[in-house]
Design a protein that fits this description.
The structure holds two protein chains of two kinds. By secondary structure, chain A is an all-beta fold. Helices cover 0% and strands 58% of the residues of chain A. In chain A, strands 2, 4, 5, 9, 10 and 11 form a six-stranded mixed beta sheet that branches. Chain B is mostly beta strands. In chain B, strand 7 and strand 8 (76-81) form a beta hairpin.
Chain lengths: 111, 116
């Protein structure tokens, strides 16, 4: 059974700092991995999707990497802003259908 | 991008009553829809997967008679929480996939259910 872990569970940084969120998974036979953002009381916003054959994806200040063999992904946020404050979730798709979510990292960017 | 809506966004009901939550794909046909539950400060847990026109597949530990799922059309799935109890209070989120070859799931905004 796939297990997804995110470290750290919470992170507080000053504005402008570059930061890295970590996601690890136990079963490397994945179809893809997605990073989502969730604001309090809201649904999920998809940030980046990395197919199993890819090693990274970039969107604006966000860069996600994938190392399938080691079961790891990182989400890099450059020049963080207070508006980046949210919970970041990674999710792994094993069967081409079902997503297994990590516990999330709650990010606070202080002005 | 693909849009998924949920209705209602919030609902409060009394213990013992039933509540229906709708999930709609607004600009694409969703062959598969998923229902998740999220407790406060926890991650999403998959409850069930539904394919249009067939019975839903429930995850282990989810009571199919309590959480009725209907996916009668390619744009609508409903989750009915029957005989709701306070412990069913949670945030319910649906997602939708357009079909074979499409890996991405598009998530709805969620429904906050409070059972008093």
């Amino acid at each position: 059974k796939q297990e997804v872990t995110q470290i750290p569970a919470a992170l507080s940084v000053p504005e402008g700092e570059n930061l890295v969120l970590n996601c690890s998974f136990t079963d490397s036979a994945i179809y893809n991995l997605q990073w989502f953002r969730q604001d309090p009381g809201k649904g999920l916003t998809s940030l980046l999707l990395i197919q199993s054959s890819q090693r990274e994806q970039t969107s604006g200040r966000l860069n996600a990497s994938l190392d399938k063999s080691s079961g790891r992904s990182t989400l890099y946020i450059a020049a963080s802003q207070p508006g980046d404050s949210a919970t970041y979730l990674c999710a792994v798709d094993n069967a081409g259908n079902m997503l297994t979510f990590g516990g999330g990292t709650r990010l606070m960017v202080k002005p | 991008g693909a849009v998924v809506s949920q209705h209602p966004s919030r609902v409060i009901c009394k213990s013992g009553t039933s509540v229906k939550i709708e999930c709609r794909s607004l600009d694409f046909q969703a062959t598969t829809m998923f229902w998740y539950r999220q407790f406060p400060k926890q991650s999403l847990m998959l409850m069930a997967t539904s394919n249009e026109g067939s019975k839903a597949t429930y995850e282990q530990g989810v009571e199919k008679d309590k959480f009725l799922i209907n996916h009668a059309s390619l744009t609508l799935s409903t989750l009915t929480v029957t005989s709701a109890h306070p412990e069913d209070s949670s945030f319910y989120i649906c997602s939708a996939k357009s079909g074979q070859g499409s890996y991405e799931q598009y998530f709805g905004p969620g429904t906050r259910l409070t059972v008093t």
